[in-house]
Specification:
- Strands 5-6-4-1-7-8 form a six-stranded parallel β-sheet, with helices on both faces.
- It has helices spanning 36-50, 69-78, 82-92, 105-112, 136-145, 162-173, 182-192, 217-226, 236-243, 258-269, 311-321, 343-359, 368-376, 390-398, 404-407, and strands spanning 16-20, 27-28, 31-32, 54-58, 97-99, 119-122, 148-151, 178-180, 204-208, 229-232, 274-275, 280-283, 292-294, 305-309, 326-330, 362-365, 385-386.
- It has 412 residues and is α/β, with parallel strands linked by helices.
- It starts with 15 loop residues before the first strand and ends in a 5-residue tail after the last helix.
- It has two domains: 6-184, Phosphoglycerate kinase, N-terminal domain (Rossmann fold, 3-Layer(aba) Sandwich); 193-398, Phosphoglycerate kinase, N-terminal domain (Rossmann fold, 3-Layer(aba) Sandwich), CATH 3.40.50.
- β7, α6 and β8 (178-180) form a beta-alpha-beta unit.
- The chain binds adenosine-5'-diphosphate and magnesium ion.
- Magnesium ion binds next to α13.
């Protein structure tokens, strides 16, 4: 089923279009440390302005605790959308109407007084207690101000909140248009290549690493079902090794996930899908590594922790990836934040960008830390698609392409 997109919206001149953007940018003492998310929203905003729409932007920013009044005030001070508006107007090369409210007279009037092509940004949607609960009254209020709705906040599309779900639901019921923005469209197209995989796009190889199995149970299960091979790395390796009764030394593993890991091994057995590292980089201490070495094989000796995949594993994985037509990667191979343990993750970046450029493979990163690693190491541009949403990209894969914030948008 294909969804309405922003280019399907016609006769926008003078119309108030509510755009759910993802301006949940990292802040340090009120300064934006990375404006990628604002930059990513610009194509949709520019397009709507050119059509003469009156653009109302709304987004959450950080978390706001509504249970504890003191925490609530502190969260609001820290996550004030006023920190975003300056950068937004710089990037738009135009003034933005900023409304320090999420409802009421001031907002109503500001929306009413917008001129064609003008942009308004309202305060953090999570200042509203009802936002995260998809409160019908709040959704109805925002929807009452809008002639159309565009969803462009991929990082929030897995949440059915007022701004991502309630508002478009009401507009649909009132026969007003709802559509996906350009960023959403790109995410949906990129990630769906790893959901609906035809034979010509196989072998499909998934690479799974990162911190915890428990964060990604459903996606691991889904990828074992869909992929031709699942290559394991990262801290999750030791949960699998432990489940197979291999010595893991002092490495962390998740005792409560051993049954799940055994189930994965069992599921993957018939088709020999699950591939575990064959050597590791280990060290005596995670925080203060003094004695660092490579293992000969898969066993990890006492007194040492596994902190990266080893060179034999890299070569082994490279061989498997040479034939891949589609690759989905989530989770770093090691503690890449420390240059001593970055080699595994860097090698995966090198291999994947190489098969993208030289063999036309379609390579996708879904996962906040993996995307950050690729960017930090200078490989980001070489991937076919780097998702902007960590949690959202995993949920999209595990739900076969469905997310509340996508499903609620009108079909063509
Ligand atoms: P993503 O955000 O891409 O989904 P995760 O959040 O699951 O990835 O995992 C990222 C973290 O996993 C990184 O901070 C990295 O340091 C950590 N990690 C990877 N391998 C290990 C390991 N062997 N021991 C401890 N932490 C690890
Ligand atoms: Mg993470």
């Amino acid at each position: 089923m294909s969804k309405m997109t922003v280019t399907d919206l016609k006769e926008l001149k003078g119309k108030v279009v509510f755009v759910r953007v993802d301006f949940n940018v990292p802040l340090k003492n009120g300064e934006i440390t990375d404006d990628n998310r604002i930059v990513a929203a610009l194509p949709t905003i520019d397009h709507l302005r050119k059509q003469g729409a009156r653009v109302v932007l709304f987004s959450h920013l950080g978390k706001v605790d509504h249970k504890d009044p003191e925490k609530c005030a502190a969260d609001k001070a820290k996550n004030d959308m006023k920190f975003v508006v300056g950068r937004l107007s710089e990037l738009l090369h135009d003034e933005v109407v900023y409304v320090n409210e999420t409802r009421g007279e001031v907002l109503n009037n500001a929306v009413k007084n917008l001129k064609d092509g003008q942009v308004l940004l309202m305060q953090n949607t999570r200042y509203e207690k009802g936002e995260s609960k998809n409160d019908p009254e709040l959704s109805a209020y925002w929807a009452s101000l809008a002639d159309a709705f565009v969803m462009d906040a991929f990082g929030s599309a897995h949440r059915a909140h007022s701004s991502t779900y309630g508002v478009p639901e009401i507009l649909n019921a009132n026969h007003k248009p709802t559509a996906l923005g350009f960023l959403m469209q790109k995410e949906v197209e990129g990630l769906n290549r790893c959901v609906n995989i035809s034979d010509k796009d196989r072998p499909f190889v998934a690479i799974l690493g990162g911190a915890k199995v428990s964060d990604k149970i459903l996606v691991v299960e889904k990828l074992i079902e869909k992929a031709d091979k699942v290559l394991i790395g990262g801290a999750i390796t030791c949960t699998f090794l432990k489940a197979l009764n291999k010595p893991v030394g002092n490495s962390r593993y998740e005792a409560d996930q051993l049954d799940f890991a055994r189930k994965c091994v069992e599921l993957a057995k018939a088709k020999n899908k699950l591939v575990l590292p064959i050597d590791h980089v280990i060290a005596d201490d995670f925080a203060m590594p003094l004695d660092i070495k490579r293992t000969d094989g898969v066993d990890i000796q006492d007194g040492y922790e596994r902190l990266d995949i080893g060179p034999k594993t890299v070569a082994y994985y490279e061989k498997i990836l040479q034939n891949a037509k589609t690759v989905f990667w989530n989770g770093p191979m090691g503690v890449f934040e420390n240059p001593l343990f970055e080699e595994g993750t860097k090698s995966i970046c090198r291999i994947l960008t190489k098969i993208t450029a030289e063999k036309g493979a379609f390579t996708v990163i879904g996962g906040g830390d993996s995307a950050a690693a690729a960017a930090q190491m200078g490989f980001k541009e070489g991937f076919s698609h780097v998702s902007t949403g960590g949690g959202a990209s995993l949920e999209l894969i595990q739900n076969d392409g469905h997310l509340p914030g996508i499903d609620i948008i009108a079909n063509k």
